[in-house]
């Protein structure tokens, strides 16, 4: 009897095997979980707590229940900052999409060997320090800079333009910084689209524009949404680009939050601002999951 | 034969060193069920794609109803292609997939809905109208692809290995189904296949392709009875091959044309090597001295031949063919 139990193919796995099966995921997930607990969950909890406290006189917080921080957000000064940040991040995202889609499309249609080369080239700027790359734009955009030299040189204008320290410069900086984050998911989505589907669309009588709008774009929508979020999110929170290229005249939410913590020493209000951004982002990601499911999953109704 | 609908004239297409199509000429009649038959890689898909407009021949002409087809882009050709992969739009429902081509014709919404309903009925998928392609079986997907193509009422429907993705049983059903549909909708069908039985059972006429060249165009019966060359004789059905009357020629003798007779009374003598009873027929394999392969004979019912006994082989019908496939 006992021997059948040991040799039978359907015998229950040994205790050791069962134990290992339970322990293994824990071991594999452990470092990641620890990392997130310490560096994501804890700060979020802390910030959530700060939101309901009063500001300390020299930074920090006084643990005294208060809802003042929330009502302050509705102050028109802050609403204006949110409006402008959202506007700039939106324009930057739209531009990145308009530049990124044709780029990603062209890369996806390259012969396989050149695709890898092109993708590496897209990512290369990330290997250079972010600050240095933003500084480079100051050199290009200032009134004595290369771009003005060029415009005067080819006789477009005699007067030099004010390019630097404008919202436009901020948008340029944001697009430049985050364009690779747009191109990569778009490339992945475009590359997945079966060429037969585009041909089938033409076969059924659709022209190029119709095929793009009716087949190509819907099938690459997950890439469009992912890329847009990856550009929109860091653009919204960015405070280096507005400071360097916007000359401090353009204040974005990122600047505002940083100032609450480092200059105004108002941690509770900074926490509320930060949490608004976090909630916004969570909503965006839920939207992305919804779009992806709609394209890839079964139809409803 | 009805009036010619499609004329393919001396069409060639090369990919680097590979001559996928090498001077192909064909005439396909109105309302015909035409099959392009040949082994994998012989250029069948390239020919269909040239007619549909996704491949551009290096030379030659393609006429539809007498007018030049090659000058038109794919979306302007009154021809539809059913893709080997079906190419159903994964983000659209079955009904929207089928309606896609009608929308491009800017038809009124009500008419589109009505025609989609009709064709869903024809292919028996009314209950699946709201599903996505991913929720269908292989056979159902194939029928959606077919419905999407015929709902456009093209003058010519091209089908690239429409049944190859299906398992054997569904396949036999769909062969009959395709034939029935072709009658019902009255559209000229050009079906590509590498399966000779499939081509024989469905098509009015068959073009046998090999190495980018047309070997023979004929009715299934004609192909079987009078193969134009050795390639066709070998590719279609079973044949016994004997040295021909002149050099480079072969005699093709079909197994069912041969009778077993007393030794010395026939044209060849041999020894029965094996017998197989298949129900309606039996196959007798006869070893003939000097022949590498046994000579096959088909007899009705059970055979009286006994293994190891000497027999004679007699026949009337035979075809002398050249090598073909230059
Ligand atoms: N786009 C292409 N590029 C290179 N070679 C091709 C291409 N399309 C087809 N071929 C070659 O042309 C020949 C015929 O191919 P195809 O028409 O697909 O054959 P079939 O459909 O009969 O199997 C094959 O040798 C194939 O490798
Ligand atoms: Mg093929």
TrEMBL record, chain A:
Gene Ontology cellular component terms for the protein in this record: plasma membrane
Location in the cell: Cell membrane
Membrane topology: Multi-pass membrane protein
Keywords carried by this UniProt record: Cell membrane, Membrane, Transmembrane, Transmembrane helix, Transport
Membrane-spanning segments: 26-53, 86-107, 119-140, 169-190, 211-233, 269-291
Cytoplasm is among the record's keywords: no
GO biological process: transmembrane transport
Gene3D superfamilies found in the cross-reference section: MetI-like (1.10.3720.10)
SUPFAM superfamilies: MetI-like
PANTHER family membership: INNER MEMBRANE ABC TRANSPORTER PERMEASE PROTEIN YDCU-RELATED, INNER MEMBRANE ABC TRANSPORTER PERMEASE PROTEIN YDCU-RELATED-RELATED
Record family assignment: Belongs to the binding-protein-dependent transport system permease family. CysTW subfamily.
Protein name: Spermidine/putrescine transport system permease protein
Organism from which the protein derives: Nocardioides lianchengensis
TrEMBL record, chain B:
UniProt source species: Nocardioides lianchengensis
GO cellular component: ATP-binding cassette (ABC) transporter complex
Keyword Aminoacyl-tRNA synthetase: no
Lineage: Bacteria, Bacillati, Actinomycetota, Actinomycetes, Propionibacteriales
Gene3D superfamilies, sorted: 2.40.50.100, P-loop containing nucleotide triphosphate hydrolases
Protein name as it appears in the record: Spermidine/putrescine transport system ATP-binding protein/putrescine transport system ATP-binding protein
Domain of life: Bacteria
Keywords in alphabetical order: ATP-binding, Nucleotide-binding, Transport
Stored SUPFAM superfamilies: MOP-like (SSF50331), P-loop containing nucleoside triphosphate hydrolases (SSF52540)
MF terms in GO: ATP binding; ATP hydrolysis activity; transmembrane transporter activity
């Amino acid at each position: 009897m006992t021997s059948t139990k040991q040799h039978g193919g359907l015998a229950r796995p040994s205790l050791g095997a069962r134990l290992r099966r339970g322990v293994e995921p824990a071991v594999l997930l452990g470092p990641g979980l620890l990392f997130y607990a310490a560096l994501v969950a804890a700060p979020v909890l802390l910030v959530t707590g700060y939101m309901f406290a009063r500001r300390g006189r020299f930074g920090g917080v006084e643990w005294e229940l208060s809802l003042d921080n929330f009502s302050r957000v509705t102050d028109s000064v802050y609403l204006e900052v949110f409006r402008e940040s959202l506007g700039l991040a939106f324009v930057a995202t739209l531009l990145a999409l308009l530049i990124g889609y044709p780029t990603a499309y062209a890369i996806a249609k390259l012969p396989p060997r050149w695709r890898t080369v092109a993708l590496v080239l897209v990512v290369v700027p990330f290997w250079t320090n972010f600050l240095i790359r933003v500084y480079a734009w100051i050199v290009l955009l200032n009134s004595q800079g290369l771009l003005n030299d060029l415009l005067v040189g080819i006789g477009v204008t005699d007067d030099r333009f004010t390019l630097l320290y404008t919202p436009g410069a901020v948008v340029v900086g944001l697009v430049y910084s985050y364009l690779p984050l747009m191109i990569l998911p778009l490339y992945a989505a475009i590359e997945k689209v079966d060429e037969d589907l585009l041909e089938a669309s033409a076969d059924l009588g659709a022209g190029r524009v119709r095929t793009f709008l009716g087949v190509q774009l819907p099938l690459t929508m997950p890439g469009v949404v992912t890329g847009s979020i990856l550009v929109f999110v860091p653009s919204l929170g960015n405070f280096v680009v507005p400071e360097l290229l916007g000359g401090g005249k353009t204040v974005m939410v990122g600047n505002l939050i940083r100032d609450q913590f480092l200059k105004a020493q108002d941690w509770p209000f900074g926490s509320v601002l930060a949490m608004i951004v976090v909630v916004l982002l969570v909503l965006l990601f839920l939207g992305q999951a919804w779009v992806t499911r709609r394209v890839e999953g079964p139809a409803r109704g | 034969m009805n009036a010619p609908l499609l004329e393919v004239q001396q069409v060639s297409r090369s990919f680097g060193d590979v001559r996928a199509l090498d001077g192909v000429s064909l005439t396909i009649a109105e309302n015909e069920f035409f099959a392009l038959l040949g082994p994998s890689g012989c250029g069948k898909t390239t020919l269909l794609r040239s007619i549909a407009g996704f491949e551009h021949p290096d030379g030659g002409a393609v006429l539809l109803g007498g007018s030049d087809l090659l000058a038109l882009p794919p979306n302007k050709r009154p021809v539809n292609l059913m893709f080997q992969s079906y190419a159903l739009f994964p983000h659209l429902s079955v009904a929207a997939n089928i309606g896609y081509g009608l929308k491009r014709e800017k038809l009124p919404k009500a008419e589109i809905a009505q025609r989609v309903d009709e064709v869903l009925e024809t292919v028996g998928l009314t209950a699946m109208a709201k599903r996505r392609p991913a929720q269908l079986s292989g056979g159902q997907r194939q029928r959606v692809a077919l419905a999407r193509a015929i709902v456009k009422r093209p003058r010519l429907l091209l089908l690239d290995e429409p049944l190859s993705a299906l398992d054997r049983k569904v396949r036999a059903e769909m062969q009959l189904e395709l034939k029935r549909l072709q009658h019902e909708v009255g559209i000229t069908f050009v079906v590509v296949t590498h399966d000779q039985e499939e081509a024989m059972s469905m098509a009015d006429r068959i073009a046998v392709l090999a190495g980018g060249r047309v070997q023979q165009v004929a009715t299934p019966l004609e192909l079987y009875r009078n193969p134009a060359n050795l390639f066709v004789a070998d590719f279609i059905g079973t044949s016994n091959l004997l040295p021909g009357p002149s050099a480079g020629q072969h005699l093709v003798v079909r197994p069912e044309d041969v009778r077993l007779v007393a030794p010395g009374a026939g044209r060849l003598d041999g020894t029965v090597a094996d017998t197989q009873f298949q129900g309606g027929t039996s196959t007798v394999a006869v070893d003939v001295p000097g022949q590498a392969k046994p000579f096959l004979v088909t007899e009705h019912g059970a055979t009286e031949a006994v293994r190891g006994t000497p027999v004679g082989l007699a026949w009337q019908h035979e075809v002398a063919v050249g090598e073909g496939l230059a």
